[in-house]
Structures are given as structure tokens and as C-alpha cells.
Specification:
71% of the residues lie in helices and 4% in strands. It contains 4 helices and 2 strands; from the N terminus they run H-H-H-E-E-H. The protein has a two-stranded antiparallel sheet. A hairpin with a 2-residue loop joins strand 1 and strand 2.
Length: 110
């Protein structure tokens, strides 16, 4: 007599359990993304061999907008950090010329 209600209740319980599992997966993926972003930042900073003081100065310049003034007519993509571990960053691929440009940029800033 109440079979239809029992089926709906069972379906509701299954949906709630699935939602809880999906919420758990979302939290795990958010944490994994946060950790990978942090690792990528460390890799990018390490690639430039900057001291903590140099990194702080670089970030201050970037934050104040002075970095764009220093780069002047240079292509803004050449100034983007490139990960050595993956060879790419935000869809740009790293070539041997990129290594030379990075070294030139670092030499100019020293």
C-alpha cells in the first residue's frame, strides 16, 4: 500500500548518500588543487634562483605596477615564469630560447 512512498524514501536516502560522497570528493579535489598550486609556485620561484629578499622585491615591483614599466617593450609572455618540472605554464611551452631569455632577464635585473 505504501510501496511508492517506501521507494521514494529509499531513492532519497541514496541521493543523500551520493551527495555526501560527492561533497567529500569536492573537498579532496579542492585541497589537492591548493597543494599543486603551492608546489607550482615553489617550482617557479626555484627556477629563477631568487633569494627570499629578491622574491619579495620582485613581488613588490609586480604589485606596484613598476615591473611592467621596467619591462618596457618586452613581450609580457617572456616575463612569465615557466616550470622546469612540466615545461609549460598556462598553456605556453618552454623552449631552449626561453631559457636564454630567462637568463638574460635575470642578468639584466642583477
Amino acid at each position: 500500500m505504501y510501496a511508492k512512498l517506501d521507494k521514494i524514501r529509499a531513492d532519497l536516502q541514496k541521493a543523500i548518500a551520493k551527495r555526501d560522497e560527492d561533497d567529500r570528493k569536492v573537498k579532496q579535489l579542492e585541497e589537492k588543487l591548493r597543494q599543486e598550486e603551492a608546489a607550482q609556485i615553489v617550482n617557479d620561484v626555484t627556477a629563477y634562483n631568487l633569494s627570499p629578499e629578491q622574491l619579495a622585491q620582485f613581488l613588490q615591483l609586480a604589485n606596484s605596477g613598476q615591473l611592467q614599466n621596467l619591462l618596457g617593450g618586452q613581450n609580457s609572455q617572456a616575463a612569465q615564469p615557466v616550470s622546469q618540472s612540466t615545461g609549460s605554464y598556462y598553456g605556453t611551452s618552454k623552449t631552449e630560447n626561453d631559457d636564454e631569455e630567462e637568463e638574460d632577464l635575470l642578468d639584466d635585473n642583477e
